């Protein structure tokens, strides 16, 4: 790996962990009142729980697609969004956050040991660089929605 690749991976890692223009999921969820996890705001189609779970599912799918030629993505959009407004219990909430973090760590490690530009043989032109940018973009968008919901609920600093 040359120095340019190391620089790109370092910048992608920063971006995936919250970047310099966005906040991380951990910051967006810090001190969230548990009773707000399943609340929906007027004219909004989803709760904070549904956004967190959607981030988890989509990020997991991008990770699996990036490393496993046999991976089958969930059915869009039905299997990417939970039906329940709130997690059934604290364990489910904590497990989703844990998986998001561990999948993100695994993807960063994958970047560090992959050719960022080589087309994935099982895709239709995707490469690890594209998947990293898509993951960061997707997560940032939905993390912004979490912050907007918290502001609406009066639960943001």
UniProtKB/TrEMBL annotation:
Question: What InterPro entries would the database entry show?
Answer: DinB/YfiT-like
Q: What Gene3D superfamilies does this protein's entry cite?
A: dinb family like domain (1.20.120.450)
Name it. Uncharacterized protein
């Amino acid at each position: 790996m040359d120095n340019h690749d190391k620089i790109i991976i370092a910048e992608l890692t920063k971006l995936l962990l919250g970047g310099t223009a966005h906040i991380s999921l951990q910051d967006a969820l810090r001190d969230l009142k548990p009773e707000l996890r399943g609340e929906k705001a007027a004219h909004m189609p989803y709760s904070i729980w549904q956004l967190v779970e959607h981030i988890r599912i989509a990020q997991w799918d991008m990770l699996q697609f990036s490393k496993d030629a046999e991976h089958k993505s969930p059915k869009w959009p039905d299997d990417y969004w939970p039906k329940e407004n709130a997690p059934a219990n604290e364990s489910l909430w904590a497990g989703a956050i844990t998986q998001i973090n561990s999948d993100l760590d695994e993807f960063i490690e994958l970047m560090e040991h992959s050719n960022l530009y080589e087309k994935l043989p099982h895709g239709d032109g995707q490469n690890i660089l594209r998947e990293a940018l898509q993951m960061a973009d997707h997560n940032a968008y939905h993390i912004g929605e979490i912050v907007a919901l918290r502001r609406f609920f009066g639960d943001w600093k």
